Amino acid sequence: MPVVRGKDIEVLFNATTIARRNLELAKEIATRDYHDLLVIAILKGSFIFAADLIRAMHDMDLSPEVEFIFISSYGTGTTSGEVRVLRDIDNEVAGRDVLLIDDILESGKTLKFTRDLMLSRGARSVAIAVLLDKTSKRQIDMEADFVGFECPDYFVVGYGMDVAHAFRELPFVGVVKGDA
Ligand code: IMP
Ligand code: MG
After folding, report:
1. Fewer Cβ within 10 Å of end Cβ, the chain: N or C?
2. What residue spans define the domains of the chain?
3. Tell me: the pLDDT tens digits for 17-34?
4. For the structural domain made of 3-177, what CATH number should be given?
């Protein structure tokens, strides 16, 4: 088991498995009839997944524009989450095909909020790609179009995802097991 910052980390999805899956996702995305594709990565957790997925998309001859939106959601879990935009995109959305990229689909509130925002701005279509789907934690009716992996109900870190700002740099997705 890898030890990072003095903690044992159990690997759930290793770098090779993720890279292979990213290529499959890019292939699926390339089958869609996109005219003017605008990728919007939801920060911070999606930054590594988005970076890898757009390069896999390039291999499938897709040439999206890329934007970033900083969304914060408070009270995830049992309380009702308040979702808001901390930093918006700079780009026009009206008439365009938007692909939202996020790390995890959990309650569904973050992605529902962001999708509705893009639809209200006149997007031609809004699709959603997530690395991980925690279906057991869903609170509203919300599904992603492209899902990397079904995720067991653990708090996961790595590959962009953090716990208390730590572990984003891990090249794999794992679970912190405790002191090594
Ligand atoms: P929700 O779908 O609105 O509940 O929010 C999902 C967001 O919560 C994701 O974009 C992550 O930023 C964060 N999140 C949920 N579960 C985890 C986890 O296991 N590790 C790290 N971040 C998580
Ligand atoms: Mg997030």
Report:
1. N
2. 3-177
3. 999 999 999 999 999 999
4. 3.40.50.2020
